[in-house]
Specification:
6-stranded mixed beta sheet; 155 residues; alpha+beta; elongated; single chain
Length: 155
Amino acid sequence: MAPYPSVYEIEEMFSHRGHPSIFETYLADNLDVTVVGQDFHIAGQYRDKKAFHEGIYSRVAAALDQSTIRVEVMRVIGDGESAWAVIESKCTAMSKYVNGNAIGKPYILEFCDMARFDSQGKITQAKEFLDSEHIQSHVSEHEGKVSEGKAKWNM
């Protein structure tokens, strides 16, 4: 048996990216995630599951209609013999607002994760490469509505 998750196990894990309660079961307690980007409101380093959830998931997911979120794993490079893998994914959903109106607009995000697994198969480290402008426009619109009292943070 290989010491790290197989390609198929990694695909299964990352296919749940749109469902935080499921995806977080695959994260190690000592998680360390870096989101790459400049002048990007969620770029930075998140050193545990709580920081990762509050800094990324709650903000991005709150801006999307949860019933429309679909994540497709396009490609996995790496396998059970390596602690590291690269995961290419595509997320589609509808945002909650467009130009200040409560009408969804398509959210299509293609992204890559470089993930390191521990000996229990949990994700312990990741580096995320995202379409920063795309995320920023969707999240900023939602957060503007939150500050106006017209939307809620909860997912």
